[in-house]
DNA sequence: ATAGGGTTAG
């Protein structure tokens, strides 16, 4: 524990040593010393007493300064340079420190070359090569790596498991997967464990090169898989956005009886969040609690994010408040979660708490608060956060921040200002910026600025499906059907596919997927009866379908019936026929909800009410392009209530349904201690 | 003393 009172530096955090310590007692003190400051004091003492000449003492001083948590490479280098004849251990230590550093991995190679030229007593040993190879992998030095491989062979260390792993990593990082595979196949491995490690390294290499299929094939072929093999696959899938695959593999892991550990849970949670698989997320949380997996700041961040994205912001807050400690990512997850749920005031309070706690906000935290302001229409406040980010915290605004600001201004109807910002940005605007501007223009019916934004969007990013759809919808909203058909024709010619609108709902642990006008579900007939009933009730209530939401040039009656079969309405119909009153329906959608669905669903939720209303969560919109859903809902956000609470999570990308059995069932296990439903 | 897996984001 180190406490800074401000003026005086902390004293030694270890008992003061005897006047002339023995080399061994100095070494043990160094091992005890947790801060760099303590190391420096002991270093000074070693010089004063002449103990620094002892190679073991000097080596330990070097080790403590570069390999502790608060490592200082420059200091370590100066210690090293003071050694008249560093021993092998010291060379290895500094090489490793450089190899694992972010700033100067190439220094590891330089140092290694220097070592080869130095006195004959300190030639490299087994411990030298892993670090040197790691450095080669890091800077993609294939030439040097291959030479070092030759040296390894010559010295007879080709069967060393540690060296092999790093050779494989070196080849795969440099893009030579064939060499990496050959090396693994031809190696005489000491044991099965080493083989697992090598295969895991290969899989990692495939993923890095984007060869996902090959990675999976290798994984499936592996005879022995460790938890790390599973975790690696799950985390990589999640990192590249293959959330469905990540979850499916996690389930397979359950089925095969492989135990989860801390890293498994941390790796799968982002995938769960993105798929909005709340029940599975709850299962993960319960699993951690039951199996004494500590919910620390890291797992906590993932859980807070999961609960926010899956619609349970109160649970997210509860988890957040119970964490033993908070780091910038924890704060970030909480602030973004609150922003996502339109709880701007709480997001701001959270930000202030963070600052009070002395945590320096990262640029990602600012994405969260700016988002919160955007949701709540707090224009001035958003601007002031933006200025504070730049002027007080010295953070350079990135595309993300400009995106937030364009959203903020655009949604508030300040389109001139939004356009001005786009033109004056210090970074080149990308498609997301133009899309934000254009959709604001569409929202506010600003033709002039909208046309300019559309033109820019077309010039720069014409091959993107999202942009084309937005353009088409923009011109449709102007009634310019000529341009609409031009855009559609262009999409056809360039073979650009629009993401199909798609909604999911989880019922009894199973995810059901619906597309527009879907009649593929086994219960389709019943669903369509319910849809008809919904339409009748809407009609009785005097509801007039908002046909301006249909961006096709067709007759009015046709437009009305198209609206009825939007995927979210089908998902709700299915939810209504398959759950009891009092059940919250969570509908997940990949694209933005249309205005008609938005308002008619609110009415439907009222009909579905069978007991006195309770406050409900509505319209969660975690992505930028659907923020307007939240703004449009603002007036009803708090007054709206229903037992069948319908909350929407809207995402950008398209996911297919996961054919899943009920969560956590398999091998006689039950879901959260309850008997699983069939 | 040395290999393989981890949280936030328009």
TrEMBL record:
Keywords: Repeat
Superkingdom of the organism of origin: Eukaryota
SUPFAM superfamilies: TPR-like
GO biological process terms, semicolon-separated: RNA modification
PPR repeats: 87-122, 195-225, 226-260, 327-361
One Pfam family linked to the record: PPR
Gene Ontology molecular function terms on file: mRNA binding; zinc ion binding
Annotated ranges, domain DYW: 542-610
Record has Repeat as a keyword: yes
Similarity comment text for this entry: Belongs to the PPR family. PCMP-H subfamily.
Protein name (Swiss-Prot/TrEMBL): DYW domain-containing protein
Species in which this protein is naturally found: Zingiber officinale
């Amino acid at each position: 524990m180190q406490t800074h009172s401000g003026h005086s530096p902390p004293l030694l955090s270890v008992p003061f040593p005897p006047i002339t310590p023995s080399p061994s007692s100095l070494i043990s003190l160094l091992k005890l010393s947790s801060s760099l400051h303590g190391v420096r004091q002991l270093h000074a003492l070693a010089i004063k007493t002449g103990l620094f000449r002892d190679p073991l003492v000097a080596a330990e001083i070097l080790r403590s300064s570069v390999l502790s948590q608060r490592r200082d490479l420059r200091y370590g280098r100066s210690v090293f340079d003071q050694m008249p004849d560093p021993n092998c251990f010291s060379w290895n230590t500094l090489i490793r420190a450089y190899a694992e550093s972010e700033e100067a991995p190439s220094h590891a190679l330089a140092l290694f070359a220097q070592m080869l030229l130095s006195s004959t007593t300190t030639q490299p040993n087994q411990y030298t090569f892993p670090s040197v190879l790691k450095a080669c992998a890091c800077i993609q030095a294939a030439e040097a790596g291959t030479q070092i491989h030759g040296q390894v062979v010559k010295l007879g260390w080709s069967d060393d498991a540690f060296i092999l792993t790093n050779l494989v990593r070196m080849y795969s990082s440099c893009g030579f997967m064939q060499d990496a595979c050959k090396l693994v196949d031809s190696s005489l491995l000491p044991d099965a464990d080493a083989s697992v490690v090598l295969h895991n390294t290969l899989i990692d290499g495939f993923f890095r090169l984007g060869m996902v299929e090959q990675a999976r094939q290798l994984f499936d072929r592996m005879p022995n898989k460790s938890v790390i093999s599973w975790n690696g696959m799950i985390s990589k899938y999640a990192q590249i956005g293959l959330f469905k695959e990540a979850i499916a593999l996690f389930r397979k892991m359950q089925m095969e009886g492989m135990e989860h550990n801390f890293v498994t849970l941390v790796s799968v949670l982002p995938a769960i969040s993105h798929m909005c698989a709340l029940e599975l997320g709850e299962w993960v949380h319960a699993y951690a609690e039951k199996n004494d997996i500590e919910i620390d700041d890291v797992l906590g961040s993932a859980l807070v994010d999961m609960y926010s994205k899956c619609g349970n912001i109160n649970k997210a807050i509860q988890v957040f408040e119970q964490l033993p400690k908070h780091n910038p990512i924890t704060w970030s997850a909480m602030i973004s979660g609150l922003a996502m749920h339109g709880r701007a005031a709480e997001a701001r309070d959270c930000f202030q708490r963070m600052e009070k706690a002395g945590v320096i906000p990262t640029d990602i935290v600012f994405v969260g608060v700016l988002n919160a302001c955007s949701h709540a229409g707090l224009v001035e406040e958003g601007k002031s956060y933006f200025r504070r980010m730049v002027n007080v915290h010295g953070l350079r605004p990135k595309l993300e921040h400009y995106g937030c600001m364009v959203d903020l201004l655009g949604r508030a109807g300040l389109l001139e200002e939004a356009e001005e910002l786009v033109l004056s940005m210090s970074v080149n605007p990308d498609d997301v910026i133009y899309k934000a501007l254009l959709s604001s223009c569409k929202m506010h019916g600003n033709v002039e600025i909208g046309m300019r934004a559309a033109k820019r969007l077309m010039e720069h990013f014409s091959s993107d499906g999202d942009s084309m759809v937005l353009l088409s919808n923009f011109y449709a909203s102007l009634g310019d059907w000529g341009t609409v058909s031009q855009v559609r024709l262009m999409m056809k010619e360039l073979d650009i596919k629009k993401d199909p609108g798609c909604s999911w709902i989880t019922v009894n642990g199973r995810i059901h997927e619906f597309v527009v006008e879907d009649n593929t579900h086994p219960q389709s007939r019943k669903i369509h009866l319910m849809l008809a009933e919904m339409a009748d009730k809407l009609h009785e209530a005097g509801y007039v379908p908002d046909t301006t939401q249909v961006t096709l040039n067709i007759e009015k009656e046709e437009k009305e019936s198209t609206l009825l079969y939007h995927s979210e309405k089908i998902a709700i119909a299915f939810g209504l026929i398959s759950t009891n009153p009092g059940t919250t329906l969570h509908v997940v959608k990949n694209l933005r909800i249309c205005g008609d669905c938005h308002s008619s669903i609110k009415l439907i939720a009222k009909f579905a009410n069978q007991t006195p209303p309770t406050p409900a969560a509505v319209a969660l919109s975690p992505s930028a392009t659907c923020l307007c859903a939240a703004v449009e809902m603002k007036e009803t956000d708090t007054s709206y209530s229903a037992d069948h609470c319908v909350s929407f999570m809207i995402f950008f990308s398209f996911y297919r349904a996961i054919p899943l059995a009920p969560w956590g069932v398999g091998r006689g296990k039950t879901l959260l201690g309850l008997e699983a439903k069939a």
